[in-house]
Amino acid sequence: MCAVRGLTKTYPAVRGRRGVPATPEVRATDDVALDIRHGEIFGLLGPNGAGKSTLVRQMTGLMRPDSGSVEILGHDIVRHPERASRILAYLGQESSALDELTVSLAAETTGRLRGLDARQARAERDDVLDELGLAALASRPLRKLSGGQRRLACFAAVLVGERPLLVLDEPTTGMDPVARRAVWSAVDRRRAEHGTTVLLVTHNVIEAETVLDRVAVLDRGRVIACDTPNGLKEQVAGEVRVELVWREAAPLHVPEVTALRDRAVESGRRWTLRLAPEEARTVVATVTGGAAFAALDDFTLATPSLEDVYLALGGAVRQGLVKA
Amino acid sequence: MSVVPAGALPAGVLTAEEAAAPGPAPLGPRARLWPSLAAVYRAQLSRARVARIPLLFVATFQSVGIMILMRGVVDGGGEARAVVAGSSVLVVAFVALNLLAQYFGQLRASGGLDHYATLPVPPAAVVLGAAGAYASFTVPGTVVTAVVGCALFGLPLAHLWILAAVIPLAGAALAGLGAALGLLAPRPELATLLGQLGMSAALLLGVLPPERMPEAVRLARDLLPSTYGVEAFARTFAPHPDWAHVLGDLAVCGVVGVISLAVATWAYRRAAVR
């Protein structure tokens, strides 16, 4: 339903001024190609600055690409960016347009601007606020709500006035588990009833693994992998992640530990190793017995997550993804 | 979390879509101009109610204060009329020009315009709705200033109804200018600065009687859209107002209003898609 081909966007270099360092030319999206199928939840995963939001802004007609094409449900969005607003609903990262409105008025106004008449907009507003558990907050201005509640209210505004495609840029940021569940069950209901497609931008690997049908991993503007979460994990299935946390410092007088040091990613007291299952077992046996054990505070052994996939695929930013 | 895998969707949904390809899918409805204008207007009015009432008091006190100051300087007659008219229109300039420039400047800088840009709403509805709401919000302050001014300087209240024409027309011209400045300024601080400068210009050129100004300043005064609103209003204080001139001034105000709102709409389009 959505096909992206050869999408490229370069931000021009900025000359430095007093107090502002110069930045070189940045290729925010680099020859991106994607196919989103009807009715799936498709994810864009990557660290901050990977180009996710820039890509989404081009797909929603908010930004003109330098070259390439975006086609959604048969419409050329690059040539007719104004059509995007009649096909999709977009939840951006900013809520400043709605901040001073009440939750109820924000949802209703958005519905009216999405082409509903007054009666429809009010009816849909009431349904959506009930569905998301926002009815009690309906008369409070968004500005006065907590970050997660405000995000949920913006999500409510996105749902008023049905669209076949929802583009959600980090929708659950700051939400508590109850609000997150409300978001995903609202999405699921629309998928089941209308076949709604969702394009989800996230840097949260746990969320990506649980809700996505397919995911494209973005790094420095390029798609470095695209598959189901399980398919991606199989690419690194031969590996297990071992995390060792030392009490104070690694016991480098133990030869086995010294030998591991080259392969570990060190972060303070924490060592992260990616190993074959056999090796991992040996390492665990070594550190939990003998001289090294005295220095060990904690250890974990885990099967690969999407984060490991991202790192194994050569993701440049080592600490960009959130596990929560 | 997600309980519906893509493969388990109702078959009809998928196949109908795939069978209909490659023809483009029908588009959702477009929001029509007047209903969406009304929706934006209502939303803006509600946010103004929350956030702008203190500023409205400031605007009114400022104008009343200026009139009290000027009482010691001007000695009735034409100058007094100019001061009262100028101070009243200053309230419009403060809210419609200065505050609207700030609002659009901040909205643009924070990415809030994306919200409107991804809705099928005509750009004119967003600009006119916001401009209209800000202009309406000046009504109480302008009327209070005018009444207080008439009392201070002993001017007749008989033709104050002309405010019903002056506020929307001067409001349109100044709000359009404010919106355009806010949307075109590359940075929000610059939008704030331009809004403040515009208001200062309306203050200096509108309130001070023109007879005492040098030629260059008088030319600048003629270029400022609010001047014509001030002139029209000032003329109605005369014992026998020259209605042809009043209408002429209001017409200029209206034309400037249409032009500045058109520029603001263009600026909005430009700012929305980068």
TrEMBL record, chain A:
Keyword annotations of the record: Antibiotic resistance, ATP-binding, Nucleotide-binding, Transport
Domain of life: Bacteria
PROSITE patterns noted in UniProt: ABC_TRANSPORTER_1, ABC_TRANSPORTER_2
InterPro entries (alphabetical): AAA+_ATPase, ABC_transporter-like_ATP-bd, ABC_transporter-like_CS, ABC_transporter_ATP-binding, P-loop_NTPase
Topological relation to the membrane, as annotated: Peripheral membrane protein
Main location (coarse class): membrane
GO molecular function, one term: ATP binding
Location within or outside the cell: Cell membrane
Record-annotated ABC transporter domain positions: 14-245
Keyword Transport annotated: yes
Keyword check for Transmembrane helix: no
Designated name of the protein: ABC transporter ATP-binding protein
Native source organism of the sequence: Streptomyces werraensis
TrEMBL record, chain B:
Subcellular location: Membrane
Regions annotated as coiled coil: none
Main location: membrane
Sorted UniProt keywords: Membrane, Transmembrane, Transmembrane helix
Residue span(s) of domain ABC-2 type transporter transmembrane: 49-234
Highest rank taxon of the organism: Bacteria
Entry membrane topology: Multi-pass membrane protein
Cited PANTHER family: NODULATION PROTEIN J
Name of the protein: ABC transporter permease
